[in-house]
Amino acid sequence: MSVGLLYALAGAALVAIGLAGLLLLPQLLRKILAFNILGSGAFLILVGLGQRDGGIDPVPQAMVLTGIVVAIAATALALALARQLLDLSGRMRLPEDGPDAGAADD
Amino acid sequence: MTDFLDPLPWLIMLPLAWGTLAFVLGPGRGGRLAIAAIALQGLLVLQLAGQLLAGGARVHAVGGWGAPLGIDLLADGLAAVMLLLAQAVALPLAIYARGYFAAQPKGRELFWPMTGYLLAALNALFLSADLFNIYVTLELLGLAAVGLVAIAGGQAPVTAALRYLLATLLGSGAWLLGVALIYGSYGSVSLAILAPLVGADAPLAATLAAALMLAGLLLKTALFPFHFWLPPAHGGAPAPVSALLSALVIKATFYLVLRLWLELFAPLTTVAAAQLLGILGAAAILWGSALALAQTRLKMLVAYSTVAQVGYLFLLFPLATLVPPDAAESAVQGGVMQAVAHGLAKAAMFAAAGSMIVATGRDDIGRLGGVGAHLPLTLFSFGLAGVTLMGLPPSGGFSAKWLLLRAALETGQWWWVAVMIAGGLLTAAYVFKVLRRAFLPVASGDRVTRVPRTLEFSAFALALAAILLGLFGAPLLALLAVGGAA
Amino acid sequence: MIDTWLPVGVVLSSFLPGLFIFFLAESRIRLRTALNLIGALAKLALIGVMLWGVLNDHEYVFRHTVLPGLDLVLKADALALLFVTLSAVLWLFTTLYAIGYLEGAPHRSRFFGFFSLCVTATVGVAMAGNLFTFFVFYELLTLATYPLVVHRGTEQAMRAGHVYLGYTLGGGALLLVGTVWLYGLAGQADFVHGGSLAALPPETAGQLQVVFLLLIAGVGVKAALVPLHGWLPLAMVAPAPVSALLHAVAVVKAGAFGIVRIVYEVYGVEFAQSLDLLTPLAIAAAVTIIWGSLRALFQDDLKKRLAYSTVSQVSYIALGVALFGPLGTIGGLVHLVHQGIMKITLFFCAGNYAETLGIHKISEMDGAGRRMPWTSLAFTLGAFGMIGVPPLAGFVSKWYLGLGALEAGMPWVLAVLAASSLLNAAYFLPVLHRIWFRPAPSAWPAEHIPQRGRWETAPLLLLPPLATAAAILLVGLFAASAFSPLDWAKLIADREYLQWTP
Amino acid sequence: MDALIALSLLAPLLVAALLWLPAGRAPGLRLAPWAPLPALVLALAAPAPFELDLPWLLFGSRLGLDETGRVFLLFTALIWLAAGWFARAWLAHDARRHVFAGFFLLAQAGNLGVCLALDAASFYGFFAVMSIAAYGLVVHDRSAAAWRAGRVYLTLALAGEVLILSGLLLAAGAHPLAVACLILGFGVKTGLPLLHVSLPLAYAATPIPGAAVLAGAMIKAGLLGWLRFLPLGEAALPDAGTAMLLAGLLAIFFGSAVGLAQRQPGALLAYSSISQMGYIAVAVGAGLLAPGLWPLLLPAVVLYALHHALAKAALFLGLGVAERHGATHWVLAGLALPALALAGAPLTSGLLAKSALKPALAGLPAPWGEPLPALLALGALGTALLMLRLFWLIRRQTGQPAAPGRGLAAPWLLALLGVAGLGAWLAPTPTWQDALEAGAALGASWPIAAALALAFAAVRLRLPAPRIPPGDLLLPVERMLAALLQPGRPLPPLAAPPSMLPPPSAHPARVEARLRAWPLAGMLWLIGVAILLALLAR
Amino acid sequence: MSRAVAALVVLLAAGLAAALGLAMLDLPEPAVRLPARVAAKLGDSGVDHPVTAVLLNFRAYDTLLEVAVLLLALVGVLALARPHAARAAAPAHPLLQTLARLVAPLMVLVAGYLLWIGAHAPGGAFQAGAVLAAAGVLLRLAGLLPAWAQPGLLLRGGLALGLLVFVAVAVAVLGQGSLLQYPPAAAGGLILLIEAGLTLSIGLTLAGLYLAGTEVEP
Lengths: 106, 486, 502, 538, 218
Hints:
Largest sheet of chain E: none
Largest interface: B-E, 66 and 56 residues
Radius of gyration of chain E: 22 Å
Oligomer: heteropentamer
Structural class of chain E: mainly alpha
Shape of chain A: elongated
Order of helices and strands of chain E: HHHHHHHH
Number of helices of chain A: 3
Largest sheet of chain A: none
CATH class of chain A: Mainly Alpha
Shape of chain E: globular
Radius of gyration of chain A: 17 Å
Strand content of chain A: under 5%
Number of domains of chain A: 1
Number of strands of chain E: 0
CATH topology of chain A: Helix Hairpins
Structural class of chain A: mainly alpha
Distance between the termini of chain E: 35 Å
């Protein structure tokens, strides 16, 4: 088992963790973080599988760089929205994810 | 010089450029620029369509490298049809938006840049022949759409935008996972390179990639039961935004489903999977229509109508998968026709709904009295759009239904016939729910104000286009046939 | 070239004014009236040209491909012109009547806009050259008439509109399925004499029977075949000119006409007979005839009684179609025209009573003949025509239907005709009795229009029914003359049966 | 001659149209009585068989006169003329006289047209116009009795129309049921048993001139229908013939018997008509039974029709005169002439008609040839009794003149002249000779004598006259119908109109809200991925 | 419901991970070998570093769109930032202010270096832009930069510069045959031009995401 594949397997685990977090955590900041974990897992898989035979593959690396920037952009927007929601509703969660109010549950 | 005028790159660069310029120009500026540019894009698409009809599908190797090293743009019939739809919807909506935001300034500051990026993303997506590039376009599209939903501010839109963002990110995440698996399996992300490599003996990774990518797209396309994010997002945004989103954005992801299903993953498809998509589509039709009928807010009704109409799109899969080529062709034609018709009609419907809301000052179906008297053209547009959605002739929606019905009857899958018929009747029920209210006189205490002419006429243009599509659908199908996607 | 565009011109001559009228301000009465009348007269002129051509064995065909294998065809043949002419002429009268009827009412632009669209759809139905085109205009008709049905905007009207839509759209859906199925089985085929399906392999017979059922059920909704008739009596809440048009020309007739086309020019009457389809159709029509009459008997609301009468009368057309042989054909076709003239007269008159005196119920009609003799005269002619009293229009229809029944070897149909005539008499004569023989009450329910000199009501309300009433008499009395509806029906039957008579 | 035909038919119609216009009322009323004059001229002057083809009319019509038609037209026009003339005086003070005149003229046009029509469609057309217009005459008084009479009359008339139409159509298709339909359809008008119930009511309720044309002229239109459309002399139809013969016989006796039990002269005369038409039905039935006899029967039937039409019209008019002038001797003397004629007294048209009938009937095969003449003679006794009863009623009821009655005498006289002369003029010579035979006179006299004796006895013994309401069998039927159908009660709806909107329920919305929750939505999505994976992997 | 659902979600997520793992362990040999192709064409790319070559030449189109995504995100964030009265910068600790004043120019220098080195070694516009943005954030935290909920024309121009230059270059070379097809000779220079523009814009954008995002009245 090459290092690349190991990275990829770790990525799979991160995907699962991120996924569960994204779906189950009601608090928005955590949700957004979970999404980042999910994304990171995907990036790891992309790079790891590309290099599973040991050689360096610049193509997935470049893709991942692109992907990271995209993820940053998305995260920024998500955070801005969450912040806005907090300001407007005083809550850091989506209404369908539980009724308990209060900004305190961070 | 001919290279210079190649429509393919310009279709992507032009909206990027005018979107950025609109941002530089400052808040609320750039509307006129946008309209001019979209008109130019429209001409480019027409030129492209001409080229395709004359010379077949076209590939544009960005950077001159060619796949698999570089990224290819592919313009075949299917892509051209979608491009045509995008510009055809965008132009009237741009004109509409200028008038709308003049009357309803909330959210106008950054509408134009975002719309520019949205259109760039759409055009890029339709033309892309590279899985990873598609991922980038998906993200561009998703963020633009989310930004537009939130544009007017307020708790409900922001909530909806956030939900939409998370959903769309999950969808793109799944896509990216799929891309990673595909790259790992085959070493390329170019559709042209991959197509011959993926076979019925594909490894688990490819199948898993197919499942993830399709599921991600279904989520982004808001197919029942993954539609939860759509109604609040589409129903809460300003009218021009709702129109763009319902008409185009979900069509983009549907387009990808179609491409994957018919081309890349065609060897993996099974009748059972196709039936599953069909069942979800049928459920969407019934569920969306039922909820549309239960709405009291006009835009929510229209949004749920989108949920229902998306269902029709997915009926094409059981009708086109592993059936005789005649029926399959008919089904694909029907599905694409439905996408185009729904795009035009739903844009018209949201635009008309927006005008009604501006005129009555509230988003309430029960208080639409007087609209028929004061905004006849708008109501007429709403009605025409409704005709298309109901699938009544002559309209694009009817042509679509016709083709789908034909495929269903030819393949003996009569249960889809029943679904389509029931869906049409349910559609009629909720469309007329609006119409009949609008025919009533103004309720005492309410007043209906005039809206700018541009609002009325742009909505009408869209609705009319949806109708004319029914009368002149043959050229569109001829275009669709280019490149053999269908 | 001009031959291609004449049918289109006929369609557009009401479509374009209709569109234009939508966007006229309420106050532009003169312009609106002018548009309406110019459209109606232009249509008549175009039809006149085509009538002459068709008489000389000319056909006018317009063809446009919508999708590959799906053509929109407008064809002016003898059968189409029968219906087109009826629609155009009655449209003119109804427009005049409606101008008088709606004087001062709100939303007139909308009303006349949809009114024109409604006629557009009707002539489209008439000139449809294939099943798809027929379906297109059939659905357009549904949409154009709905706003007219709910025009008053009352709760009752809304409910009626609801039911109307439910029925008609449902029917349209059945028609659509049938059409698609048929196209799948046999490909695209224009309406031709003798039909186009006889050449299909025999194993498709079962499917063809199912398709026939679907198609007939589809058009049967508009033709108000029992049990698909539920919408019609409710739809009478519409303003009188609408009811008049709905019952006489547009909706129910479109359905009936559809039956004609399907039996004669899709299946072919001989082939339909060989598939055993005609007798069930005849039975359905017979049941409808009797049931409609029975229900009419128990209505006190005048328009409702007329509506049930329509249910009954329109099925005469279906009955004629189902009678295998030229005489039945003639009877059915001529009734298409005659029922239109008669029923429009009756509804005009019902509208006059309501508008002038506020009379809506039969129990309020005592002595109305004294106050409104001309209207009542027209009503009387219409009613007698319906009963089939010679020499009025209805008699001609019944005569040929009876002959056709014998020719087709279905003498039981005569019993149906007889029973129906008696029932017609049973529900019309009491009305006439009240009008003419009962003393007038001291005050009318709500006298809106006072007697002005010789005019018992507004001139525009009075002249159209008188004209159509005169037509009832004339088409019956001069049935054998050239250019009478009967003459034209014979021409059609000649052409229809020439194809297959050995 | 063509113009005269047109004028005969159009004259009543034009005058009726004139009456419709308020301005034309006065001149119309003045012209109304003379409307049948062109027809009368036509009947007298036209060459016997002549035809006029009108291919543009209805289904291509043929109007004209043959011998039968000419006789019918003659007496029809004469009766209408007399009645119209009579009506002008009779209704001089009636506010609605123009209405009466209008219906009168319409019915007249129909009746004249019936005589002139030579094709089925136009015959049927005129017949229908006549029948329906006559409703206006029946209900003219607007009394309860008139309404009832009108309702019954119209119901039966329409049933008759429908039967006739069916019969005509069936005949065109040579269907066996055609004859039955035609017999019954026209039988409504001629008062065949069971179909007769409207006659007594109608005759009693209609104003005198109306009753005169109903009983005199219009009833004969039904007969003409038989003559025109039954295959008389062409084919033997034993079943139909026998049935009709029996029905005729029944009518003869039943009519007389029930007529005797009447209190109103009008009703009595109606039953007399039923009875008299029975003779004709017997003759027509005989014609169906034995086609060979028809050449002999036809003139007799026509003569009988003429005789009965004129006599009955004269009786009715006389009834009117008696009512207005009181039953003076002169009036009674005038009434005696048609009454005797009906009873078949010597030297009357009645005897002529019966003499013409007898030899023809005697030629019938067994079992009819023998008993029939005797039965007919017995019938004459009934008729004579009826006439006596009529005189009795007139004397009892018209004690005081009800209203001034100037101008009634002249038209009555015209009718009486017709009774006296027309039959004699038109009867073929052999009939004359038969009638003048002493035996015939004697045979004709004994029923009258016997009747007188019976009547005398009855009066002496103060036998209570039985009482049967006019319309006899109608009453139980009416009661039954009234119980069955209560007009105005709506039938239950066939099915409730389907409601398109599901009841507003929060349920879908609740489900929708749950679907929005991330764990559930995400779970569904993951399941979706799993299912897709499972389905895609083959 | 929620517990069961949560359990099921966890289970399914784990299942997905397992499926991913299984799939990865059973991969075929890739049919296409891109690294070799990259190496083969590296000489024509105008840069020496393979990742930069892919980023800015072979798949420069991805990068172009990605820049648009970034700018779009800022547009989105700006759209959310309601025009509140700009809060006066909170007074920061003098030490922080001094430090920021010292470090900021240094960071600009680092950014310039990263940009330049990107052609040969790990580095490039994004890294450089990120450092620039960090400088901006630092200055903002030290209270030395004003808030910019409503960026002025100049600032907007700066934000858009990178993308506009990129697009301009992309279409300017259309004459070569296709989008972003640099003339081989000018490739290096054009890439540097693009990267320079991008560095500035990315720096501003990333800083803006922070600066605009903080400007909301609680």
